[in-house]
Amino acid sequence: MAEDEKKIMSIVQEDGSIDEVEVLLSFEFTDTKKEYIVYTKNETDESGNVTIYVASLIRTDDGEDPKLGSVETDEEWARIKNVLKELAKDDEQ
């Protein structure tokens, strides 16, 4: 994917509203077969940093679009943070 191409995804909220978000990264841990997605709504915090979100992807066998789930354990969070740190190191080089 070229640098200027953005992958946009629609997220349907519980109230039925739809958020258009930019997908930054998706990956799977091969040992657990759990998939994750990192995305942004391109919002910035008070320091000017872009807010990012992480969710697990829940796929069903019926062919429907995957659902977003939560990151449930501290171990999962630690592994996800390690992936993001490694990517940040790669970007700095």
Could you describe the 3D structure shown?
Strands 1-2-3-4-5 form a 5-stranded antiparallel β-sheet, with no helix packed on it. The protein is 20% helix and 44% strand. The chain has 93 residues and is α+β, with helices and mostly antiparallel strands. The two termini are 20 Å apart. The mean pLDDT is 89. The chain has one domain.
Which stretches of 5+ consecutive residues score pLDDT under 50?
Answer: none
What is the CA-CA span between the terminal residues?
A: 20 Å
Count of beta strands: 5
Shape: globular
Radius of gyration: 14 Å
Roughly what is the average pLDDT, rounded to an integer?
89
Strand order of the largest sheet: 1-2-3-4-5
- Main β-sheet: number of strands, strand sense, barrel status? 5 strands, antiparallel
Strand content: 35-45%
What structural class should be given to the helix and strand makeup? alpha+beta
Q: What is the share of helical residues?
A: 10-25%
Sequence of secondary-structure elements: EEEEEH
Number of helices: 1
Count up the domains.
Answer: 1
